[in-house]
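User: I'll paste a sequence; please echo it back and then give the predicted structure.

Assistant: Echoing your sequence first, then the prediction.
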Amino acid sequence: MGSANGFYSVGEFDLEGKWLIDPKHLFVGPKIGEGAHAKVYEGKYKNQTVAVKILHRGDTPEEIAKREARFAREVAMLSRVQHKNLVKFIGACKDPVMVIVTELLLGGTLRKYLLNMRPSCLDMRVAVGFALDIARAMECLHSHGIIHRDLKPENLILTADHKTVKLADFGLAREESLTEMMTAETGTYRWMAPELYSTVTLRHGEKKHYNNKVDAYSFAIVLWELIHNKLPFEGMSNLQAAYAAAFKNVRPSVDNLPEDLACIVSSCWKEDPNDRPSFSQIIQMLLHYLSTISPPEPVIPQRIFTSKNSVLPPESPGTSALMATRENSGDTSTSEMEPRSRSFFFCFNQCY
């Protein structure tokens, strides 16, 4: 329903009219990812190829209220924060189902890109360049008072040329407030900051104080992973890794890192959040390091092989699957390889 000021009421927030998706112009194609709370499809909106995230509303009144509130937060943040290293928001609608539409990035997730490279590692300049993309996205979020809370390779998407990384999935993002108490154990365990736990074990869902420095810790783990192309805390389960980091102050080894990079990583994952640098400082440190290393030798870009869609773990929201891998039967016909037309997609309105 519209209003005189051009805003539309969507649950717990007002969505500006220009961001309201008209379902009649939305066409949904093949599923490209699935998580615990959403499915992501390739789609078309007004002849633009897009990613369509359709959120599960839930079954119980409590579940429905919780997911609608999460949807409202995510859309509110996406609609007001724009940056070249954030996935571009196109619009959303709440009825007939909760839908978020964003640009479709064709390079796949950083997780899949790194897995396809193993056991090789990224060129150091490429790794640091990706880290700068991530840090700039986080600096933008923090400057708007937003904590992402789920920074990890699954939520980082590459452009088609594999030269730029963009941050996705605001499902767990929250606005930072000096007085707000936030949910503990939020995020994905292996990349989660130690202060999300306590020496007195918190029951899941209890509230405690923390600030945007939780993202600096997660960034350190991602940076370590970019450089080594190994799973951090290898040999441990997600819970074991979180316990070791929180209660034993265990961190991945920095012994094989250049001194400047080791300093950056170590400062970002310090136990005391107040000792960790801001993302503005992290960017300056990364730029300084980049200026000290010589240009790389020309290399032939590695071909990335995509595989069948994988179902994301329950702790990973659906938007992290924004990648151009589609389900297939293994015997793709010639006609299916031809440029896609509008008829390839089904009308969103007809299905809901």
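Residues 79 and 321 are 20 Å apart (CA to CA). The domain at 110-292 is CATH 1.10.510.10 (Transferase(Phosphotransferase); domain 1).
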